Amino acid sequence: MSSTTATSGLSRARRGVAPGGSGAVPGKRKSKLSAQTTRTFFWLLLPSVVLLVLIHGYPLIHAAVQATHDGDLLQTGNFVGGENFASVLSSPAFWKAAQFTLWFTIVGVFGSWLVGLGLALLLRTRIPAGNTFKVLLLLPWVVPIVVSSTAWNWLVATPDSLIPSIFRGLGLGTPLFLADPTLASITVMVFKVWVSFPFMMMMISAALASVDTTVYEAASMDGASKWQQFTQITLPLIARSTYISWILMTIFCVNDFPTIYLLTGGGPVSATTSLVVLAYRTVFQDFATGPGVAIAFLMTMTLVVISVILYRQIRKSSVE
């Protein structure tokens, strides 16, 4: 059967036109919400919105004041305008932390997504002791980060730890995973993937559970290969959940303080210092509140931009 026929069948399957499909009837439009329903939703949401503004409004305003002053934790200090932002943006430490944060986020988001996707697809098949396997896979996410970081420190922190000892026994030397800047960065990123993949796995599993299996049966009848079904049915159908999980995981990675601080403390030689760790050090160790809060504001603005871009992708990811 030709590839054109298979592609046409995949298109029909995604629309739900194929046997067992649940696509919308052409020409049928959804009725718009009535004005009364819209007003009801508005009054139901208003108390929550007001509460959120009250809870977050004051800290945000106070942080904005601190970012434009040269004070410390006890005093606001004098107004300096944008000097704190200028000093932060001209600091080599800031750009070094920004570079590590970028790589940490990329590896954390896409690494955990790839692992979670693979395991979610595996869990759709019949495997022995499937329920027990699912529970075990959730442990890295469920176990407190303090416990996980302690376990990883026991595995890699010193030359006599388990994994360096294994390398030494195999004649591969004694790698210092938390003392070498490059190895420490890689270790922290791998640790982030380890503690995050269960979240991605659950998000993808929930999306896959809503996919009608008859869609795949229809695609098989039209001659589509397993790879074609994966790339042209599975991925498009879970696209919205994928973008949502990317937004959430990006926020988790950029704002992740305990994963890095408990494992390496930001070292060695600031190799694993992210922006949030740098902001913490600036405020609570150097007592420079203005520059520290300025770093936090720059992080927030970056996250807002990334979230808006991914949110637009969510709106575009309609299955045709």
Automatic annotation (TrEMBL):
Record-stated family = Belongs to the binding-protein-dependent transport system permease family.
Q: According to the UniProt entry, which residue ranges have a biased composition of type Polar residues?
A: 1-10
Note the superkingdom of the native organism.
Answer: Bacteria
Output the Gene3D superfamilies linked to this UniProt entry.
MetI-like (1.10.3720.10)
Region annotated Disordered sits at 1-31
Query: What region holds the ABC transmembrane type-1 domain?
Result: 98-310
Stated name of the protein: Multiple sugar transport system permease protein
Ranges annotated as spanning the membrane:
40-61, 100-123, 135-155, 161-179, 191-210, 230-253, 260-280, 292-311
Q: Kinase: is it a keyword of this entry?
A: no
| Membrane topology qualifier | Multi-pass membrane protein
A Pfam family this chain is assigned to? BPD_transp_1
- The organism's lineage? Bacteria, Bacillati, Actinomycetota, Actinomycetes, Micrococcales
Can you say where in the cell this protein is located? Cell membrane
Identify the keywords attached in UniProt to this record, alphabetized.
Cell membrane, Membrane, Sugar transport, Transmembrane, Transmembrane helix, Transport
